[in-house]
Write a structure and sequence with these properties.
Elements (H helix, E strand, L loop, with lengths): L1 E7 L5 H14 L3 E6 L4 H7 L5 H10 L1 E4 L13 H8 L4 E7 L12 E7 L9 E5 L2 E4 L5 H17 L4 E6 L7 H13 L6 E6 H10 L6 E4 L1 H14 L9 E3 L4 E3 L18 H13 L3 H15 L15 H10 L3
Helix pairs in contact: 1-9, 1-11, 5-6, 7-8, 9-10, 10-11
Bound molecules: adenosine-5'-triphosphate.
Adenosine-5'-triphosphate binds next to loops.
Protein backbone atom coordinates (compact mmCIF):
# COMPACT_ATOMS: atom_id res chain seq x y z
CA UNK A 1 0.00 0.00 0.00
CA UNK A 2 1.31 3.46 -0.88
CA UNK A 3 0.94 6.20 1.72
CA UNK A 4 1.00 9.95 1.29
CA UNK A 5 2.90 12.21 3.66
CA UNK A 6 4.28 15.73 3.71
CA UNK A 7 8.04 16.24 3.95
CA UNK A 8 9.51 19.50 5.27
CA UNK A 9 13.33 19.36 4.98
CA UNK A 10 13.77 22.46 7.21
CA UNK A 11 16.88 24.54 7.96
CA UNK A 12 20.49 23.83 8.94
CA UNK A 13 21.06 20.09 9.28
CA UNK A 14 17.39 19.44 8.41
CA UNK A 15 17.84 18.49 4.71
CA UNK A 16 20.67 16.03 5.54
CA UNK A 17 18.87 14.23 8.36
CA UNK A 18 15.44 14.11 6.71
CA UNK A 19 17.04 12.67 3.57
CA UNK A 20 18.63 9.96 5.72
CA UNK A 21 15.21 9.25 7.25
CA UNK A 22 13.38 8.91 3.93
CA UNK A 23 16.08 6.49 2.71
CA UNK A 24 15.55 4.34 5.80
CA UNK A 25 11.74 4.39 5.45
CA UNK A 26 12.03 3.29 1.81
CA UNK A 27 14.52 0.53 2.66
CA UNK A 28 12.15 -0.72 5.37
CA UNK A 29 9.68 -1.43 2.59
CA UNK A 30 7.20 1.32 3.43
CA UNK A 31 6.05 3.08 0.29
CA UNK A 32 5.51 6.75 0.99
CA UNK A 33 4.73 9.30 -1.67
CA UNK A 34 6.38 12.32 -0.05
CA UNK A 35 4.86 15.72 -0.86
CA UNK A 36 7.88 17.98 -0.39
CA UNK A 37 7.22 21.54 0.81
CA UNK A 38 9.56 24.24 2.05
CA UNK A 39 9.40 26.16 5.32
CA UNK A 40 11.99 28.06 7.33
CA UNK A 41 14.51 30.85 7.09
CA UNK A 42 15.18 30.72 3.32
CA UNK A 43 11.45 30.63 2.62
CA UNK A 44 10.99 33.71 4.80
CA UNK A 45 13.48 35.62 2.65
CA UNK A 46 11.55 34.65 -0.51
CA UNK A 47 7.93 34.88 0.63
CA UNK A 48 7.93 37.01 3.81
CA UNK A 49 6.68 34.11 5.95
CA UNK A 50 8.56 31.08 7.26
CA UNK A 51 5.39 28.98 6.98
CA UNK A 52 3.56 29.46 3.65
CA UNK A 53 -0.09 28.30 3.39
CA UNK A 54 1.09 25.62 0.98
CA UNK A 55 2.77 23.82 3.91
CA UNK A 56 -0.32 23.86 6.12
CA UNK A 57 -2.59 22.85 3.22
CA UNK A 58 -0.33 19.93 2.34
CA UNK A 59 -0.40 18.60 5.93
CA UNK A 60 -4.17 19.11 6.14
CA UNK A 61 -4.50 16.98 3.01
CA UNK A 62 -2.03 14.20 3.83
CA UNK A 63 -2.74 14.25 7.58
CA UNK A 64 0.86 13.47 8.45
CA UNK A 65 4.29 15.08 8.06
CA UNK A 66 7.96 14.46 8.70
CA UNK A 67 9.54 17.77 9.58
CA UNK A 68 13.17 18.81 9.76
CA UNK A 69 14.12 21.49 12.29
CA UNK A 70 13.35 25.13 11.54
CA UNK A 71 15.52 27.80 13.16
CA UNK A 72 13.99 30.74 14.99
CA UNK A 73 15.78 34.09 15.25
CA UNK A 74 16.48 35.23 18.83
CA UNK A 75 15.02 38.56 19.96
CA UNK A 76 13.60 40.04 16.74
CA UNK A 77 12.86 38.52 13.32
CA UNK A 78 10.00 36.27 12.28
CA UNK A 79 7.75 34.38 14.70
CA UNK A 80 8.65 30.76 15.35
CA UNK A 81 7.41 28.62 12.44
CA UNK A 82 7.38 25.64 14.81
CA UNK A 83 4.98 27.35 17.20
CA UNK A 84 2.85 28.67 14.31
CA UNK A 85 2.60 25.21 12.77
CA UNK A 86 1.52 23.61 16.05
CA UNK A 87 -1.05 26.32 16.73
CA UNK A 88 -2.41 26.49 13.17
CA UNK A 89 -3.01 22.73 12.97
CA UNK A 90 -3.99 22.45 16.63
CA UNK A 91 -1.30 19.83 17.25
CA UNK A 92 -2.01 19.99 20.93
CA UNK A 93 0.09 17.10 22.26
CA UNK A 94 3.86 17.06 21.96
CA UNK A 95 5.10 13.58 22.86
CA UNK A 96 8.76 12.82 23.48
CA UNK A 97 9.92 9.39 24.61
CA UNK A 98 13.12 9.60 26.64
CA UNK A 99 14.69 6.15 26.73
CA UNK A 100 18.16 4.78 27.28
CA UNK A 101 19.62 3.34 24.08
CA UNK A 102 21.94 0.42 24.85
CA UNK A 103 25.50 1.24 23.76
CA UNK A 104 24.96 5.00 23.56
CA UNK A 105 27.16 6.72 26.14
CA UNK A 106 25.10 8.35 28.91
CA UNK A 107 25.09 8.66 32.68
CA UNK A 108 22.18 6.26 33.25
CA UNK A 109 21.28 2.83 31.93
CA UNK A 110 17.62 2.63 32.95
CA UNK A 111 15.82 5.77 31.80
CA UNK A 112 12.36 5.21 30.31
CA UNK A 113 9.78 7.98 30.50
CA UNK A 114 7.62 10.02 28.14
CA UNK A 115 7.20 13.79 28.20
CA UNK A 116 3.70 14.95 27.24
CA UNK A 117 3.84 18.69 26.61
CA UNK A 118 0.87 21.00 26.00
CA UNK A 119 1.70 22.47 22.62
CA UNK A 120 -0.70 25.30 21.86
CA UNK A 121 -0.76 27.86 24.67
CA UNK A 122 1.00 28.81 27.94
CA UNK A 123 3.82 31.31 27.54
CA UNK A 124 4.08 30.35 23.84
CA UNK A 125 0.84 32.14 23.01
CA UNK A 126 3.00 34.91 21.55
CA UNK A 127 1.05 37.62 23.33
CA UNK A 128 3.73 40.12 24.29
CA UNK A 129 3.64 43.88 24.38
CA UNK A 130 5.61 46.83 25.61
CA UNK A 131 3.67 48.60 28.38
CA UNK A 132 5.99 51.59 28.49
CA UNK A 133 9.69 52.22 27.95
CA UNK A 134 11.63 49.53 29.84
CA UNK A 135 8.56 47.45 30.72
CA UNK A 136 7.16 44.52 28.73
CA UNK A 137 4.43 42.01 29.47
CA UNK A 138 4.22 38.42 28.18
CA UNK A 139 0.94 36.65 28.73
CA UNK A 140 0.76 33.06 29.91
CA UNK A 141 -2.57 31.73 28.69
CA UNK A 142 -3.96 28.59 30.33
CA UNK A 143 -7.42 27.34 29.41
CA UNK A 144 -9.51 24.64 31.01
CA UNK A 145 -10.25 23.08 27.61
CA UNK A 146 -6.60 22.72 26.58
CA UNK A 147 -5.50 21.60 30.05
CA UNK A 148 -8.18 18.89 30.27
CA UNK A 149 -7.42 17.52 26.80
CA UNK A 150 -3.64 17.33 27.34
CA UNK A 151 -4.17 15.68 30.75
CA UNK A 152 -6.49 13.13 29.12
CA UNK A 153 -3.92 12.50 26.40
CA UNK A 154 -1.25 11.81 29.06
CA UNK A 155 -3.46 9.42 31.03
CA UNK A 156 -4.60 7.59 27.88
CA UNK A 157 -0.94 7.18 26.86
CA UNK A 158 -0.09 5.86 30.34
CA UNK A 159 -2.96 3.38 30.14
CA UNK A 160 -2.02 2.24 26.62
CA UNK A 161 1.66 1.80 27.52
CA UNK A 162 0.82 0.28 30.92
CA UNK A 163 2.76 2.92 32.80
CA UNK A 164 1.82 3.17 36.48
CA UNK A 165 2.04 6.94 37.04
CA UNK A 166 1.57 10.36 35.51
CA UNK A 167 3.49 13.22 37.11
CA UNK A 168 1.88 16.65 36.65
CA UNK A 169 4.66 19.26 36.63
CA UNK A 170 3.76 22.78 37.75
CA UNK A 171 4.70 25.93 39.64
CA UNK A 172 1.28 26.45 41.18
CA UNK A 173 2.81 27.70 44.43
CA UNK A 174 3.81 30.90 42.57
CA UNK A 175 1.49 30.98 39.52
CA UNK A 176 -1.54 30.07 41.58
CA UNK A 177 -4.16 30.79 38.93
CA UNK A 178 -2.51 29.62 35.69
CA UNK A 179 -0.53 26.60 36.90
CA UNK A 180 -3.25 26.10 39.52
CA UNK A 181 -5.81 25.54 36.73
CA UNK A 182 -3.45 23.21 34.84
CA UNK A 183 -2.95 21.12 38.00
CA UNK A 184 -6.63 21.11 38.89
CA UNK A 185 -7.46 19.78 35.39
CA UNK A 186 -4.89 16.98 35.82
CA UNK A 187 -6.55 16.04 39.14
CA UNK A 188 -10.00 15.98 37.54
CA UNK A 189 -8.88 13.75 34.66
CA UNK A 190 -6.94 11.45 37.02
CA UNK A 191 -10.21 10.41 38.70
CA UNK A 192 -11.14 8.51 35.52
CA UNK A 193 -7.94 6.44 35.72
CA UNK A 194 -7.93 4.84 39.18
CA UNK A 195 -5.19 2.36 38.24
CA UNK A 196 -2.75 5.20 37.43
CA UNK A 197 -1.14 7.22 40.20
CA UNK A 198 -1.19 11.02 39.81
CA UNK A 199 2.03 12.54 41.14
CA UNK A 200 2.42 16.29 41.54
CA UNK A 201 5.86 17.88 41.33
CA UNK A 202 6.97 21.48 41.34
CA UNK A 203 9.07 22.11 38.22
CA UNK A 204 12.30 22.98 40.08
CA UNK A 205 12.11 19.85 42.23
CA UNK A 206 11.30 17.84 39.10
CA UNK A 207 14.44 19.14 37.36
CA UNK A 208 16.57 18.03 40.31
CA UNK A 209 14.87 14.62 40.55
CA UNK A 210 15.34 14.09 36.81
CA UNK A 211 19.09 14.46 37.03
CA UNK A 212 19.46 12.43 40.24
CA UNK A 213 16.84 9.65 39.92
CA UNK A 214 15.37 9.67 36.39
CA UNK A 215 14.34 6.00 36.59
CA UNK A 216 11.42 6.89 38.91
CA UNK A 217 9.39 8.61 36.12
CA UNK A 218 6.84 7.12 33.70
CA UNK A 219 4.81 9.92 32.08
CA UNK A 220 5.52 13.59 32.71
CA UNK A 221 2.65 15.99 31.95
CA UNK A 222 3.50 19.66 31.65
CA UNK A 223 2.84 22.98 29.94
CA UNK A 224 4.55 24.34 26.86
CA UNK A 225 7.60 26.11 28.33
CA UNK A 226 8.39 23.51 31.00
CA UNK A 227 8.05 20.81 28.32
CA UNK A 228 10.45 22.59 26.00
CA UNK A 229 13.11 22.91 28.69
CA UNK A 230 12.73 19.48 30.30
CA UNK A 231 12.76 17.78 26.86
CA UNK A 232 16.33 18.97 26.33
CA UNK A 233 17.19 17.93 29.89
CA UNK A 234 15.67 14.52 29.15
CA UNK A 235 17.67 14.24 25.93
CA UNK A 236 20.80 14.92 27.96
CA UNK A 237 20.01 11.87 30.12
CA UNK A 238 20.01 9.43 27.20
CA UNK A 239 22.79 10.60 24.87
CA UNK A 240 21.81 14.09 23.80
CA UNK A 241 19.69 15.94 21.28
CA UNK A 242 20.87 13.80 18.39
CA UNK A 243 18.89 10.74 19.49
CA UNK A 244 15.47 11.80 20.83
CA UNK A 245 12.44 11.68 18.51
CA UNK A 246 9.14 13.45 18.90
CA UNK A 247 5.64 13.89 17.60
CA UNK A 248 3.09 16.70 17.59
CA UNK A 249 -0.36 15.23 17.57
CA UNK A 250 -3.79 16.76 16.99
CA UNK A 251 -7.18 15.27 16.27
CA UNK A 252 -6.78 15.74 12.48
CA UNK A 253 -3.02 15.68 11.77
CA UNK A 254 0.32 14.60 13.23
CA UNK A 255 3.77 16.08 12.60
CA UNK A 256 6.85 14.06 13.49
CA UNK A 257 10.12 15.83 14.28
CA UNK A 258 13.25 15.54 16.40
CA UNK A 259 13.58 17.42 19.68
CA UNK A 260 16.69 19.16 18.37
CA UNK A 261 16.87 22.40 16.39
CA UNK A 262 18.65 23.25 13.16
CA UNK A 263 22.21 23.03 14.62
CA UNK A 264 23.62 25.66 12.24
CA UNK A 265 27.14 24.90 13.52
CA UNK A 266 26.99 21.47 11.84
CA UNK A 267 24.98 22.25 8.72
CA UNK A 268 26.29 20.95 5.41
CA UNK A 269 29.27 19.10 6.95
CA UNK A 270 27.85 15.57 6.99
CA UNK A 271 28.45 15.38 10.75
CA UNK A 272 24.89 15.55 12.11
CA UNK A 273 23.41 12.60 13.94
CA UNK A 274 20.37 11.46 11.92
CA UNK A 275 19.08 9.15 14.71
CA UNK A 276 16.46 11.51 16.17
CA UNK A 277 14.82 12.19 12.80
CA UNK A 278 15.06 8.53 11.73
CA UNK A 279 13.34 7.50 14.97
CA UNK A 280 10.72 10.24 14.41
CA UNK A 281 10.18 8.74 10.95
CA UNK A 282 9.74 5.31 12.59
CA UNK A 283 6.98 6.81 14.72
CA UNK A 284 5.39 8.25 11.58
CA UNK A 285 5.54 4.82 9.97
CA UNK A 286 3.80 3.33 13.04
CA UNK A 287 1.19 6.10 12.83
CA UNK A 288 0.54 5.00 9.22
CA UNK A 289 -0.22 1.55 10.57
CA UNK A 290 3.06 -0.07 9.51
CA UNK A 291 3.87 -1.31 13.00
CA UNK A 292 6.29 -4.08 12.02
CA UNK A 293 8.32 -1.79 9.74
CA UNK A 294 8.51 0.81 12.52
CA UNK A 295 9.87 -1.80 14.93
CA UNK A 296 12.42 -2.94 12.34
CA UNK A 297 13.67 0.63 11.91
CA UNK A 298 13.91 1.12 15.68
CA UNK A 299 15.84 -2.17 16.06
CA UNK A 300 18.18 -1.30 13.19
CA UNK A 301 18.96 2.05 14.83
CA UNK A 302 19.73 0.43 18.19
CA UNK A 303 21.93 -2.24 16.58
CA UNK A 304 23.87 0.31 14.50
CA UNK A 305 24.45 2.58 17.49
CA UNK A 306 25.67 -0.29 19.66
CA UNK A 307 28.89 -0.25 17.60
CA UNK A 308 31.01 2.80 18.53
CA UNK A 309 32.36 2.80 14.96
CA UNK A 310 28.97 4.13 13.83
CA UNK A 311 28.49 6.76 16.51
CA UNK A 312 28.58 10.38 15.37
CA UNK A 313 30.56 13.24 16.96
CA UNK A 314 27.81 14.27 19.40
CA UNK A 315 28.05 10.75 20.91
CA UNK A 316 31.85 10.90 21.10
CA UNK A 317 32.41 8.94 17.87
CA UNK A 318 33.77 9.79 14.43
CA UNK A 319 31.07 8.47 12.10
CA UNK A 320 29.51 10.72 9.49
CA UNK A 321 25.78 11.10 8.89
CA UNK A 322 25.95 8.78 5.90
CA UNK A 323 28.11 6.15 7.65
CA UNK A 324 25.57 5.84 10.45
CA UNK A 325 22.68 5.87 7.97
CA UNK A 326 24.32 3.12 5.89
CA UNK A 327 24.85 1.04 9.04
CA UNK A 328 21.15 1.42 9.89
CA UNK A 329 20.18 0.41 6.35
CA UNK A 330 22.50 -2.59 6.61
CA UNK A 331 20.82 -3.70 9.85
CA UNK A 332 17.29 -3.64 8.45
CA UNK A 333 16.65 -7.35 8.20
P1 LIG B 1 17.72 26.28 16.73
O1 LIG B 1 17.90 27.77 16.69
O2 LIG B 1 17.14 25.73 15.48
O3 LIG B 1 17.03 25.78 17.96
P2 LIG B 1 20.27 25.64 17.94
O4 LIG B 1 21.63 25.39 17.38
O5 LIG B 1 20.09 26.81 18.81
O6 LIG B 1 19.20 25.63 16.75
P3 LIG B 1 19.87 22.88 18.49
O7 LIG B 1 19.95 22.69 17.05
O8 LIG B 1 18.71 22.28 19.17
O9 LIG B 1 19.87 24.39 18.85
O10 LIG B 1 21.15 22.21 19.09
C1 LIG B 1 22.11 22.74 19.96
C2 LIG B 1 23.43 22.06 19.63
O11 LIG B 1 23.33 20.62 19.84
C3 LIG B 1 23.79 22.22 18.19
O12 LIG B 1 24.45 23.42 17.99
C4 LIG B 1 24.64 20.98 17.91
O13 LIG B 1 25.98 21.20 18.25
C5 LIG B 1 24.03 19.93 18.81
N1 LIG B 1 23.07 19.09 18.04
C6 LIG B 1 21.74 19.27 17.92
N2 LIG B 1 21.22 18.36 17.12
C7 LIG B 1 22.21 17.55 16.72
C8 LIG B 1 22.31 16.41 15.85
N3 LIG B 1 21.23 15.88 15.24
N4 LIG B 1 23.53 15.86 15.64
C9 LIG B 1 24.60 16.37 16.25
N5 LIG B 1 24.59 17.43 17.08
C10 LIG B 1 23.41 18.02 17.30
Amino acid sequence: MEHRATLIPGDGIGPEVTQAATRVVEAAGVQVNWERVEAGADVFVKYGTPLPDEVLNSIRTTGVALKGPIGTPIGGGFKSANVLLRQSLDLYACVRPIQTIPGVPSRYSDVDFVIVRENTEGLYSGLEHRVTAGVVESLKVVTETASLRIARYAFELAREQKRPSVAAIHKANIMKLSDGLFLECARRVARDYPEIELRELIIDNCAMQLVTRPEQFDVLLMDNLYGDILSDLGAGLVGGLGVVPGSNVGSECAVFEAVHGSAPDLAGQGKANPTAVIRSAAQLVAHLGEIKAAARIENAVVTALSDPAYQTGDLGGKATTSELTDAILHNLD
